[in-house]
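Appendix B. Raw example, untouched.
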Amino acid sequence: MLGEAPSDPKSPSRIGTSVTIQDIARILNISHTTVSRALADSPKISAETKLRVRNTVEQLGYVPSASARMMRGARSSLVGLIIPDVQNDFYATVAKTVADALAARSMQLLLSVTDDDSDRELRELRAILETRPAGIIIVPTAAPRAETAALLKNVETVQLIRTHARLSARSVIIDDHAGTFAATQHLLGYGHKRLAFIGGDTSLSTGRTRLAGFEDALKEHGLEPAAIALGAPRPEFARHAVTSMMAAKDRPTGLVFGSAELTLGALQALRSLRLEWPRDVSVVGYHDPAWFELAAGGITTVRLPVQDIAATATSVLLSRAFEKSLHDEDPDAPVNVEFAPTLALRGSTAPWHG
């Protein structure tokens, strides 16, 4: 077209567009192989040439193609993390910890949120697998699709927090039974006999084990639960459940929760009912977000080592993906790491004098 300048890889107009290794090679008058080796920090390339290549790359804004690297057999720098919720403080901390652990290894995180929907879980997984990641860390939904399980068999996978029998035998979890058992024992030791539990649905492994810890502690004392409410781990569910429980004639004197979100909803319900903790009812939360210490008197809670769990899941995944021993006789052997929670005592629990 009249007045249009000819295309020139050396021209400033090329900066910010799709620059290739061939462009860089032409500018420096060297082979594209030399450019590739310089970018890979090959010992066969002189320091002077590496510096020239890197300066030109920086000037032109060249970005290496991940797919091209994979075709050359290079290790992927991507890891997928599939979680149910990113607004939840627990999973936000997990994502940040995994991202930091990967960044320390010059790797990147691909984050997907499922909202605990198995169909969405499958769609998110397919999208991540298109990038040929080094591996997947997944908090599985209650009922992963058969195709999800089949796809995960072809990539290194670690289950986090929750487990499902269809998926990988490698997992990093919390001893949830011990957590709610300790919470319940604490209230029983304070003389409470009418205890209620508000937790997640038992279709999830975490929901089952947290409920079992509560029930087993009561059984040791020959007691039955005053009430149990199981459902979506959302504040609105806990608000409804606690409002109903506290309207009963023999209402609970102690409440044990199965998540921080449920704890939040329960406290909102107690406030709206003008009930105070621990005067009217003792409460024990689950997880330990920062606001637990700021609530009136502080919230007694089952504290989870979230950062340790997430960092360990990352290490387990990468060791499987990149550091397998050639003499490993059973590469599919189970790897199960379980962390113990602790009970943080604050002002939301007190002896019952009723």
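End of appendix B.
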